[in-house]
Amino acid sequence: MEPAQDDIGVRLNQGDPGALEDAYRTLGPLVLSYVSRFVPAPDVEDVLQRVFYELWRAHDRYDPSQPLRAWVLGIARKRAIDHLRKRRDVVVPIDSMREMTGDDGRETADRFVWADEVRTALDLLPELQRQVLELAYFDGYTQSEISTALDIPLGTVKTRTSRGLQRMAGLIESSRGL
Amino acid sequence: MSAHLSDELPLLLTGEANRDEVLAAAAHLRGCDDCLQELVSAVVAHASLSSLRRFAPEVMATRREPAEPVAAQSAGPAALPDLSAVFAQVRAEAAGVEAPDRRRPGSRYYRVAAVAAAAIVVGGGIAAAVALTNGGSRPAPTAERIQLAAFDKGRVNASATVSDGRMRLDASALPAAPSGRRYEVWLTNSARTRMQPIGWIGADGTATLTVPGTLMNTFSDVEVSVQDVTAPTYQYSGTSVLRGAY
């Protein structure tokens, strides 16, 4: 079990260097996914290092009452933009820059924060409920197809899906502590 | 009033309900507060999952990958890039050790500078030692070899070579780490009152780690511990298997 993000945020704010490593273990995959969307593959590790070093340098400016993942993604967004602007030797896809800095502003970073909250909520569901939701929402199965694939009655699929959605809603609406 | 809709709500949201089912559900929902509240919750979850799938599918993909056995990982948990140099820098800063360079360790420029500084410090230190023993007649060697002997719970020996700010450690004689455990490399002082983690040993028993020369100069020994990577907090486990002075 990873240390809760709230705990990591408090320790980071207090200057505990171990909290930075915990933050990397917990949020590294999210930041890696986000940065990889915009930054050329050979530069991803470079940007990742900048992001997490900046977390340390700016740790006393982090407000532990705010979600850690949102703060981290905000820094990742800035560093990715800086990196793309400095890369004068390559052609940066204009759509990539527009998505990060254009009309939708922080939308992509915000969606990643939300996505991570949803993913975390999904991980907290009982295995049987998570399984049917993953098949429905990420593999595109209908309820009947899930019934066939898992060899369980259709009514059971419906019940697990319904209860999974109800439980997820509660987790998402109180997602600050996830 | 017809039966409650609980188990039918997902079908309404995913478009799997037919026209008659949709119209019947609408009629029921207009008169049933309980089902209406359940629908609200279902919409929240449905919208969230749909957004994740549509706008950030890679976030889902990172968590859905099968967990790689710990012993098979080459660098850090979850196959993330190895940021041990950054963490070493941060721990050195937190401990009040003068940083080798105030530039950010994330930049390639930093890495080049750190490697150069390490080469100067390590190479210079060794050159001075050689000069004392050989009257300065030999050119300065470019690498330092560190012998690591079995220590604490350890039963085998190993060795490391430090050159150009990189430590290459061969501990392939160690047995494979048990499930949930990994070998971690530390710098320590002789009294073992200060310990600085610098990286993990891979599944093949070797490690190549970035170690700034200024950091090495603040310690005197290399130690290898067995760490529980599933522990909720990160700290020295108290169990070591190798140790050697430099």
Describe this structure in words.
The complex is a heterodimer of chains A (178) and B (246). Chain A is built from nine helices and no strands. By secondary structure, chain A is mainly α. By secondary structure, chain B is an alpha+beta fold. Helices cover 37% and strands 21% of the residues of chain B. Chain B has seven helices and eight strands; from the N terminus they run H-H-H-H-H-H-E-E-E-E-E-E-H-E-E. The interface between A and B is large, with 64 and 55 residues.
List keywords for this structure.
heterodimer; A: 178 residues; mainly alpha; 0% strand; elongated; B: 246 residues; alpha+beta
Shape of chain A: elongated
User: What is the residue-mean pLDDT of chain A, rounded to a whole number?
Assistant: 85
Helix and strand pattern of chain B: HHHHHHEEEEEEHEE
Strand content of chain B: 15-25%
From the N-terminal CA to the C-terminal CA of chain B, the straight-line distance is: 83 Å
The largest contact between protein chains, plus residue counts on each side, is: A-B, 64 and 55 residues
State the gist of this model:
With 178 residues, chain A is mainly alpha-helical. Chain A contains 9 helices and no strands.
What's the SSE blueprint?
The complex is a heterodimer of chains A (178) and B (246).
Chain A: H1 5-13, H2 17-38, H3 41-57, H4 68-86, H5 94-101, H6 107-123, H7 127-137, H8 143-150, H9 154-173
Helix pairs in contact in A: 1-2, 2-3, 2-4, 3-4, 4-6, 7-9, 8-9
Chain B: H1 9-14, H2 19-29, H3 33-55, H4 57-64, H5 84-94, H6 108-134, E1 144-150, E2 158-163, E3 166-170, E4 181-188, E5 195-200, E6 206-210, H7 213-216, E7 221-228, E8 240-245
Antiparallel strand pairs in B: 1-2, 1-8, 2-3, 3-6, 4-5, 4-7, 7-8
